[in-house]
Amino acid sequence: MGCKNKAALVVGGMSSIGKDLLEKLCRTYDNILITEISSNYAELQIWCEGLRERNPKTEAREYMLDVTDSRQIDELGNYITSNDLVIDALYYLAGINILTPAIRVTEDIWDRIQSVNIRGFFFISQMAARNMIMNHGGSIIGIASQHGVVASTDRAAYCASKAAMIHLSKELSLEWAKYKIRVNTVSPTMILSEKNETLLNTPLLRKEYLSKIPMKQYAKPSDVSDAVIFLSSPAARMITGQNLVVDGGWTIS
Predict the structure, then answer these.
(1) What CA–CA distance (Å, rounded) separates 163 from 238?
(2) Which residues lie closer than 8 Å to 215 by C-beta, 6 or more apart?
(3) 214, 249 Cβ separation under 8 angstroms
(4) How far is residue 228's CA from residue 241's CA, in Å, rounded to a whole number?
(5) CA distance 22 to 168
(6) What proportion of the chain, given as a percentage, has pLDDT over 90?
(7) What would the 3-class secondary structure string for 35-66 be?
(8) What local confidence, expressed as pLDDT, does residue 109 receive?
(9) Which pLDDT tens digit goes with each residue over 100-119?
(10) Which positions ≥6 away from 7 have C-beta within 8 Å?
(11) How far apart are CA 121 and CA 113, in angstroms?
(12) Residues 6 or more apart from 200 whose CB is under 8 A from it?
C-alpha cells in the first residue's frame, strides 16, 4: 500500500457484511479502524481480539461511535489525526430500518432513520474526505439498498434514505474527483445471515421475497463484501459515482 499508516475505516463493523469484509481487509491493510455504537461495542471488542489473533500483522482498532452525534464524529477525526492514520478507504455500513406503514410514520421514526442512514453518511464522508484530500485521494463506499432503487411496502423512510445516499454519492463523487476521491454505493437485496436465516427461510417470506429475485436465491454477506472490495480496489480506479446493485435481478423490472 506504500504508506505504512494507510488505513481502512469501517463504520458499523458488526453487521454480517462488516464481519465478512473485515476478514478480507486484513489481506490489504496494516491498519483497520472499526466503529460501533455502544450497544454493540462489547461484541466489537471480542471480534477485534479474534481478528488480531488471526491476522497478527494487522492493527485492528475498535472505536465507539454514534454517527448521529456530530461531536463524536469530530472526535473520531481528531483520533485519526493524532494517530497519524491515512484513510485510504471509508466503508459506511451503519444503517437502520423501522418497518412502518407510511401512514403511521412519526417524526421520530423518520428522523432516526434519516439521521443514521443519510446524515451520518454525509458527515462521516466529509470527515474522511478532509483526511483523503491531505493525502492525495481515497475511496468512499456506502452500503445503500435495492430499496433505494425500487419501492417497497412499509419502508417509506428507509427507501427515501437509501435513495438519498445513492444520489448524494453521485454528487460527492463529482465534487471530490479533483482530489482523486472516488465515491460509490453498493445496494444489496435481502441478505441471508446467521441472525435472520430462520426468518427468511419461512415459507411465507421465501414466497414473498424469492418470487421477486429472478435468480431465486438470497444474497450472502460475501456477495456484498466482494462487491465492496472490488469497488475500493485499483481494478475500479475509473469507477466513481456509481451504484452497484447486488440483488439477483430484483430491480431489473
Answers:
(1) 23
(2) 248, 249
(3) yes
(4) 14
(5) 25
(6) 96
(7) EECHHHHHHHHHHHHHHHHHCCCCEEEEEECC
(8) 98
(9) 999 999 999 999 999 999 99
(10) 29, 30, 31, 32, 33, 80, 85, 86, 87, 88
(11) 12
(12) 190, 192, 206, 209, 218
Give this prediction's pTM: 0.96
Give all domains of the chain, ordered by start, each with its CATH number: 6-246 (3.40.50.720)
188-193-195-197 Cα dihedral, nearest 10 degrees:
100
Q: What is the pLDDT of residue 1?
A: 41
Q: What cell was used for 52? A: 488480531
Q: Cell 432503487 maps to which residue? A: 149
- pLDDT at residue 4, as a whole number: 61
Beta strands, E only, the chain: 6-11, 31-36, 59-64, 86-92, 138-143, 181-188, 243-246
Q: Which residue has the cell 472526535?
A: 75
Active site residues per annotation:
145, 158, 162
